TrEMBL record:
Name the record gives this protein: DUF4192 family protein
Location of the region described as Disordered in the Swiss-Prot/TrEMBL record: 1-45, 414-548
Stretches with biased composition (Basic and acidic residues): 499-510, 524-535
Tree of life domain: Bacteria
Compositional bias (Low complexity): 449-469
Organism: Streptomyces flavalbus
Biased segments, Polar residues type: 429-438
Record InterPro entries: DUF4192
Length: 548
């Protein structure tokens, strides 16, 4: 069984998105008796400033209402642990971790142990061991079940959470079940405080915390299910047509990528097509909400265009160059395009979604949306568990690293390519073609502003010859010569720049090259950056939470 785990902030940072410098909400004890936590409300990934705001939480109702603001979305079928740190006699919320509730109760002990140990040890690595915890379980009733029955059914899970946290000397001061618009406290023994039928949740947006969040410009999303719906493949009548387009494109695109004489041309055509489609999306009128916006974007892409892009992005050098659309005016149309492509990976092409989903995660992380970044990267790993770029980015996001280090590397690589393109084979700056022999049009340079309404395309890079091997997948009824691309296998090591053809090592037994791959800037940079903490020290292995 796969459980999705995540953290929504670092325990030693002062805001929900893991950034420093903002105050957090306060959490006073869940019940009137103990004197405990208070916290400042912090901005989520969507910005806002609550540095002058302080919200004190004193009751279970206020703790239950705070959960969406702590996570940035409304959890479903989830176990959530929230750290509390004692500062001058007042508690502050710290790191948060979430896992899905396993359907099989036999899995509950291991999940509780994973969640508690991951959060506490992750907080210790960041130098802020929690003193206490607040636990939440959130699940809607199944058919014929009541919220109270959900609460009783999940009681053993909550008890296991309390035991595991207790073994780590971090007591759970309150544990809440949220179901069917009501909440229950597993820790309250005050007569008349928490009725057996549960306490109704307040109307969304009516609490003091909600008012403070609104004033600060914070946004709370819907549910993770709604977020995933923007990224999962179509299940519509258009699926056969899209799959047929992928089949047709694979007959030509794959063969051309495998051919060293045409691979550079395929990369240029893929990026040029992506550039045109991003301009088309940017010019479209805005939609009122996400669902109409996604439908509008789907209508702006033809089946053939989507198929060509999906297959072209299986080349990792091309994908890494596409990752340079990561900020500024390029980021919004880029992430819309990558989402639309992920939705087009239908039928037997589900594994191909790893590339566009990873690009969604990268652009989301680069623009400050850690929630979508985690979800997209987790889905990329679900499509292809061995997709290294997604794995490294997922770990970096969960570790609370700063994406700016990777952005700087991508900018530097783009600028270096532009300089190489301007210099001729003899080193003179004559704007001739790249070393691969393909006319890159580098006379534009990277500092020129793009035409109005257009998207700046990453500068072309020479593509190494014969450096990619594509794994074959033969579909029933497809000729042997027509092969669709799952993804390129690793390229020879010893180089992180396109065009460096030094041989790499070979793993015993599989014959595949290992190590760095030419042009795989994203993976290699993420590997280097993801292995260190913000102060330059090597980070401990594993994140606070990860996909189990």
């Amino acid at each position: 069984m796969t459980h999705h785990g995540e953290t929504t902030g670092s325990s030693n940072n002062d805001d929900i998105a893991g950034r420093k410098g903002s105050n957090r909400p306060a959490a006073r004890s869940a019940h009137p008796t103990p004197t405990t936590p208070v916290q400042h409300l912090a901005p989520s990934a969507y910005g806002g400033d609550l540095s002058a705001q302080q919200v004190t939480l004193r009751t279970p109702a206020e703790l239950a209402d705070a959960l969406p603001y702590l996570l940035g979305y409304r959890p479903e079928d989830s176990i959530v642990l929230v750290c509390l740190h004692d500062r001058d006699g007042r508690g502050r919320f710290g790191g948060r971790a979430r896992l899905g509730i396993p359907a099989n109760p036999d899995d509950w002990p291991s999940v509780a142990r994973q969640l508690a140990q991951g959060l506490v040890k992750g907080s210790e690595r960041r130098g802020a061991r929690p003193e206490q915890m607040v636990a939440y379980v959130c699940q809607e009733p199944s058919a014929g079940e009541t919220g109270q029955q959900v609460m009783e059914r999940l009681r053993p899970l909550v008890q296991q959470l309390r035991v595991e946290c207790g073994l780590l000397d971090v007591p759970v001061i309150d544990a809440l079940c949220i179901s069917d618009g009501r909440f229950w406290s597993y820790c309250c023994d005050i007569k008349g405080c928490c009725p057996a039928g549960g306490t109704p949740m307040g109307l969304p947006g009516t609490s003091v915390l909600a008012a403070a969040a609104t004033y600060a410009g914070l946004q709370v999303r819907g549910t993770l299910r709604e977020l995933r719906a923007r990224l999962i493949p179509w299940e519509t009548a258009a699926v056969p047509d899209q799959e047929a387009a992928l089949d047709t494109a694979s007959l030509t695109v794959v063969r051309r990528i495998l051919d060293e004489t045409s691979r550079a041309q395929v990369a240029e055509e893929t990026l040029e097509l992506a550039e045109r489609l991003m301009g088309r999306l940017a010019a479209a009128p805005p939609a009122e909400s996400t669902a109409p916006a996604d439908l509008r974007d789907d209508e702006l892409l033809t089946h053939d265009e989507a198929a060509t892009l999906i297959l072209g992005l299986q080349d990792r050098t091309t994908r890494d160059r596409a990752a340079e659309w990561m900020e500024g005016d390029d980021a919004a149309p880029a992430i819309r395009l990558w989402r639309a492509l992920a939705r087009r990976c239908v039928g037997s092409y589900g594994e191909h979604a790893a590339a566009p989903l990873t690009l969604v995660g990268w652009v989301a992380w680069s623009t400050g949306d850690d929630i979508e970044a985690r979800e997209a990267l987790a889905m990329a790993l679900g499509a292809d568990p061995d997709y290294l770029f997604a794995r490294l980015l997922h770990q970096a996001v969960n570790e609370g690293l700063d994406p700016e280090s990777l952005r700087r590397c991508l900018r530097a690589e783009r600028e270096e390519r532009a300089q190489d393109d301007e210099a001729g084979p003899d080193g003179s700056r004559n704007g001739s073609s790249t070393s691969s022999g393909f006319d890159s049009g580098a006379d534009r340079g990277t500092d020129d502003a793009p035409p109005s309404g257009s998207v700046a395309r990453p500068a072309p890079a020479p593509v190494p010859a014969a450096s990619t091997t594509l794994r074959r997948r033969t579909r029933p009824g497809t000729p042997a010569s027509g092969t669709s691309v799952a993804r390129p296998l690793p390229k020879p090591s010893g180089s992180t720049r396109p065009g460096d053809g030094r041989p790499g090592r070979t793993r015993p037994g599989d014959g595949r090259p290992s190590g760095a791959r030419p042009g795989a800037l994203g993976e290699e940079t993420a590997r280097r950056r993801g292995s260190r903490t913000g102060d330059g020290r090597p980070a401990a292995s594993g994140g606070t939470e990860e996909d189990a």
